[in-house]
Amino acid sequence: MTILDFLRMVRANLKLLLIGLLVGALMGFGYSLLQPRVYASSSTGFVTVGEGSGINDVISGSVAAKEKATAYLSLIKSSAVADEIIAANPEINLTRGEIQESLTASVDSNSALISVSATASSPEAAQALANSSLEAVAKVVNDLEGSSSVRVIPLEDAALNPSPTSPNTPKLVLLGAGLGLALVLAAVMLRRTVDTKLRTRDDATKATDAGVLGILPVSDEISEESILYTNSDHISQEAIRQMRTNLRFVNVDNPPRSFIVTSAEPGEGKSTVSSSLARALADADQPTVIIDADLRRPTIAKKFKVDSKVGLTQVLAGQVELADAVQQFEDTQLFILPAGRIPPNPSELLGSDKMRQLIHELSQEFTVVIDVPPVLPVTDASLLSNSVDGVVLVGAVGKTRKENLAEAAKNLRAVNAKILGLVINRAPRTGLGNSYYGFAYSSNGAYTSYYGKDQQSKKGSKRSAKKAKSKA
């Protein structure tokens, strides 16, 4: 994965990452609320030895005082010191073990300065523990040595600190946010690593070793049920026109006059693509005929809402003349040859000499678009691939498996079929996918902002008026 791929992935999953960040931060904050509050306070004093210690000895620390301070440092956590603290502060209400765990001490290496830190569940308790601990140590030492030569001269009394030292809420919130972000990012990367579906332009080209002719976004105008032409979805219409242009430039000197449109598996939108492409070619004043050669599950007649009783099967059987079976779509350059009656032997009909001759004759006058069954379930597409100038292979984002797409391309090349290119169908416009998948539909307003919304509306109105006038 390149840096650019990573940035695209982050951008495409930005909402999920932000949600993970927010949830992690909230969990960190919630965890901090469940933790007990701990308050801290510390006091400092000088340890002196003997009655005659002067101020200089106190500040610099005599050798004896330094040795005593270091030697008695471990007494801070002793039971005797804890008992003295309890006796001096009965209101603290702490056990001996709790006091021992809450105290820590250190000695300055250059003097007899000793510092004691205490923690407790309240600021007052922490202050009392820190202030009384040094006096308790001095008393225990004097009791042990049987004298009162050890003194503790206070330097800084413990202060009352109302802010708890634990839990560290900002730290826990940041830690939770980072953990939430990392988990979501790991899940996104794992999903991309193990994902077997077609997701990106690179997935399609690597699987088939062919170029991309076009990318059709998710649109109500080019759904599986029907092909609408309201011209309200400028993005989908422009994508179809771009697909038509790219098809023409596959071979500039000898553009394809006939081609089949197929997919690896059913339900990937091959009939939608063939219908949209045929209509786009006809809209460019190029005589076009679309043949429904999917004799197992014909859908072209339903999409264009024409009669499907008479069609290809009757023409190939010699029961009907071609001119009687072909239907013109409205007042356009598009002609439709429906599938007709579903035969018991579709493969034999499509692989027959009559089918090849029919395609050859039609391609002399028309651009022939043939909708055929998927490649992997049946052999119809492979049989017809040598009767046309090329194959347009369709894959659907989030549905087509990359291995199936690769296998379909392999099967077609095994029979010397020429793959003109790929059409990626149902590309997401927004949310998870658009920029990461490289489909360039991140801004739905890009088309109208360039050409002008009013201009497009006027064009749509003029076309609607023209159609209404012709029907009248």
From TrEMBL:
Gene3D superfamilies: P-loop containing nucleotide triphosphate hydrolases (3.40.50.300)
Region listing for Disordered, in residue ranges: 452-472
Domain CobQ/CobB/MinD/ParA nucleotide binding: 260-426
CDD domains linked to this entry: BY-kinase
NCBIfam families listed in its UniProt record: eps_fam
Keywords, comma-separated and alphabetical: ATP-binding, Membrane, Nucleotide-binding, Transmembrane, Transmembrane helix
Ranges of Basic residues composition bias in the record: 459-472
Superkingdom of the organism of origin: Bacteria
Record protein name field: Polysaccharide biosynthesis tyrosine autokinase
Transmembrane segments annotated in the record for this chain: 12-34, 172-190
